[in-house]
Amino acid sequence: MIPTDWLGPQEWQAVRLSLRVAGVATLVSLPFAIGVAWLLARRRFPGHGLLSGIVHLPLILPPVVTGYLLLVTFGTQGPVGSMLKPLGIVFAFRWTGAALACGIMGFPLMVRAIRLGFEAVDPRLEQAAATLGAPRPWIFLTVTLPLILPAILAGATLGFAKAMGEFGATITFVSNIPGQTQTLPSAIYALLQTPSGESAALRLVAVSVVIAMGAVLVSEWLARRMKGRG
Amino acid sequence: MLEVAFRHRFPGLALDVAFEAPSGITALFGPSGCGKSTAINAIAGLLRPDQGRIALDGRVLFADSTNLTPQARRIGCVFQDARLFPHMTVEANLRYPSRWRRGAARDFDRIIGMLALEPLLQRRPDTLSGGERQRAAIGRALLSDPALLVMDEPLAALDEARKAEIMPWLERLRDEIRLPILYVSHSVAEVLRLATTVVLMRQGRVLHSGPLTRILADPELAPQLGAREAGALISATVEGREADGMIRVATAGGPMLLPDLDLPQGQALRLRILAHEVILAREAPQGLSALNVLPVTVARVDGGLIQLSFGNERMLAQVTPRSVKALELLPGTQCHAIVKSVSVLPS
User: Fold this and answer.
1) For A68-86, how does the pLDDT look when each residue is reduced to its tens digit (9 = 90+)?
2) Angular region, B140: left φ>0, alpha ψ -120 to 50, beta rest
3) Domain extent listing, chain B
4) Looking at the domain assignment, is residue A166 inside a domain?
5) ipTM of the prediction
6) Is A135 within 8 Å of chain B by CB?
7) Which residue of A has its CA nearest to B77?
8) Which of A32, A166, A211, B158 has the most CB atoms at less than 10 Å from its CB?
9) Residue in chain B lying closest to A122 (CA)
10) pTM recorded for the entire structure
């Protein structure tokens, strides 16, 4: 058994919350990232450059600005937030908001990795599948997706790592409420603000390093396994 | 019957392609960059031509208001680079079309057997040799239950040994499966061995199309296949064996003799008679070692290439302009063709 008492309950809460936020952010944004990556890699349409620019915005804007824009848009008074509120979907100052912020901050990284995957797939393989009678959605599922799985995995790992470490946009959008929106980075930040918090902060830093390394190792192991099969 | 007529404009190349492909193997022949691959992409539905009409057995695949998807065209494609799915086994590749083209699923064992794919089924495409890969690709195309098989330089990426390995499979395909095949190639050897009909292409246009035997015996068109290759291709049937072992064959122009070959009676052959292996004489020659001396009539004179009619067959003789004058070779002239050597191609 791993001893659990070397972290206080509040610290454990931050670790669990961070894992949940990063996991949800990655899983929910992944299908969108695949869709946008496909559009950018395979389609030419008016607004192609604009879409690419918008997707990359979170990468180049200061995270605080992204967080503030989220607050303005998805806050309870914001245009989108006020529309979603009657449906029971609230982002502001909830863990769901942290997941939204982390998802958006990680989105460009995921799209970039997956887009490279799409660009590396030989479209002539898909043409061959079409001449064999397979409808396009089936070709996407049976030829394209399996061939870009390593890229999807790389994108998901990047997105997850980004989500685990996201700080600026999250703290701006959903603040730093212990048990609600206090993720690992914001817990470390809060601990460093208190005189006695340094040793607890150091332990959380160690947890961060272990999770990040673990994510990379798992993703590399999966990629190797898939390569072995494919 | 495949009917093709389309125009398409690329930067730097304007295509105006029109030909018909009856059953058998139709070779689309021409140098690289003449538009052969574009033509087959248009036929397979992988490229939309600017205008035209493409129909297969009366079914319109492409016209002004029609543009069937590749899925709906039922054209099996074998590409130069095989294009097997790298993440699947050979068996999964071969079974890929069966979900959508159920018609061919019952042929699975027969096609596996014909192409000897059984030992490869569990292998991955990247562990196959080039020849094995092409064989698997041919099998996969056949299992898509096609109404036409299109092969885009299927041997071009292979070395001579691999080509020799694949050729017999293509011949079996031609002879065993009653399927029209459009075969793109820039290799004279492949066309001679496989094709029944030839479409000669140059710079986006069709120079000529027709039966291979006609083109080979045409002094104007034969050089398009390569000057050294001018000559006739004649169909023959083995009649019997002479006392000394020579083989007697029947052709549309009369009997001919071949050296002792292990050929059963009734075997259909293609005889290749190169123009520079034929000597002409006005008088019946006496005391000659050559066995095949055929009475012929000059049909056409084109420089030093003389087209000769020989019963219902045509052949070519390569002579010097001086001989043309000395022998007074004019259309209608009766003379004797001395055939020095004949090569035998399986049919």
Assistant:
1) 999 999 988 888 888 888 8
2) alpha
3) 2-216, 231-340
4) yes
5) 0.80
6) yes
7) A131
8) A166
9) B83
10) 0.80
